[in-house]
Design a protein that fits this description.
Layout (H helix, E strand, L loop, with lengths): L1 H25 L8 H13 L3 H15 L5 H13 L14 H35 L10 H10 L2 H15 L19 H37 L3 H8 L4 H26 L6 H6 L5 H10 L3 H29 L9
Helix pairs in contact: 1-4, 1-13, 2-3, 5-8, 5-10, 5-12, 5-13, 6-8, 7-8, 8-10, 9-10, 10-13, 12-13
């Protein structure tokens, strides 16, 4: 039975992959305009050029990108390229490939968002659990309105506020970028410290907003858990308060939080679009923004496909790990 359940989960994942690739192929091609033609005429309007030359270039690029072929041939070619991890050639960053552009931007986004998300999850979950636990100090109750306020403020607005305070009003941190202009990236302490210094403000905006979100979610789960029979039984056995909090309350309340964390980490590939724009951070969000501005649907397709596949894979792994996280969950016949 367990094998059949795992096989079914794998089947659902591959169905998600099939639908994701198909929809990702179809949606950009529903537009009425040809992206190559539109891009060429934009470049011609900016820099001049003869219409005959532009039409010749459009024909060459349509053949290069495969847009001169019937739609069903483009679909099969797209599947062939996806299987080989060839996501095409960028229009806005020609002749760079989409895969190279994504791989160049992904480390910045993963490094920023993965650390920020995990820090916000840990701090927010612990703080939310302590706020809801009746045996903690009443002073922690002041954090409830703080958590509600932080969860209501979009992280990009927090980013703008942090830039004003710590980069303009009190200029101790850089306003934008991931490193100093002209710096040569290498594995050395000055470069690492420079990158960390530039990441403080964008990371702080994400962490502050995330603490409110995770804290309120954990507080609600703890309030629900405290009314369960196993908590009453643990108290009746005379177990220590710390043991009841850690093993009986916190552990059970974490399950929905872990699900949300898996989805959040999987969504990292989409980038913190507005934060990266505010701080001019060279991540996936900035890449997606520039691709949309440049009508580069090959890059847009590549980013969207990576996001969908990462979310699907994260949920598949989480589904397989649930029996380890909670022994009450098992895949067998009842």
């Amino acid at each position: 039975m367990t094998f059949l359940v795992y096989a079914a989960n794998g089947g659902v994942f591959f169905l998600v992959v099939f639908l994701a690739v198909t929809i990702n192929f179809a949606i950009p091609r529903l537009r009425s305009t040809n992206p190559i033609e539109q891009r060429m005429y934009e470049m011609a309007a900016q820099g001049g050029g003869r219409s005959g030359d532009i039409r010749a270039l459009i024909a060459i690029y349509n053949e290069k990108f495969g847009l001169d072929k019937p739609l069903y041939i483009q679909y099969f070619n797209y599947w062939r390229d996806v299987i080989r991890f060839d996501l095409g050639t960028s229009i806005a960053f020609y002749p760079g490939s989409v895969r190279d552009e994504i791989l160049r931007a992904a480390p910045w986004t993963i490094g920023l968002l993965a650390v920020s998300t995990l820090m916000a999850f840990v701090i927010g979950s612990i703080l939310g659990a302590l706020v809801a636990w009746p045996n903690t100090s009443r002073l922690l109750s002041v954090f409830v309105p703080v958590l509600m306020t932080l969860s209501a403020i979009p992280y990009y607005l927090l980013g703008v506020l942090l830039v004003y305070v710590f980069a303009l009003l009190w200029p101790i941190l850089p306003t934008a970028g991931a490193y100093n202009s002209g710096a040569r990236l290498n594995l050395s302490w000055p470069v690492v410290l420079d990158i960390a210094r530039h990441a403080i403000l964008p990371a702080a905006s994400i962490i502050l907003a995330g603490i409110g979100f995770w804290g309120l979610g954990m507080r609600a789960m703890m309030v629900t858990i405290m009314g369960e029979d196993h908590i009453t039984m643990a108290q009746a056995k005379g177990l220590q308060t710390r043991t009841i909090f850690m093993r009986y309350a916190l552990r059970n309340a974490l399950l929905p939080q872990v699900t949300g964390l898996a989805i959040s980490l999987a969504g990292i590939m989409s980038g913190a679009l507005l934060v990266e724009i505010v701080f001019a951070y060279p991540g996936i969000g900035s890449l997606l923004y520039r691709a949309i501005s440049g009508n580069d649907y090959f890059v847009i397709q590549g980013v969207v496909l990576f996001v969908i596949l990462s979310v699907g894979l994260a949920l598949l792994i989480l589904d397989l790990l649930y029996p380890i996280l909670d022994p009450r969950i098992h895949y067998r016949k009842s």
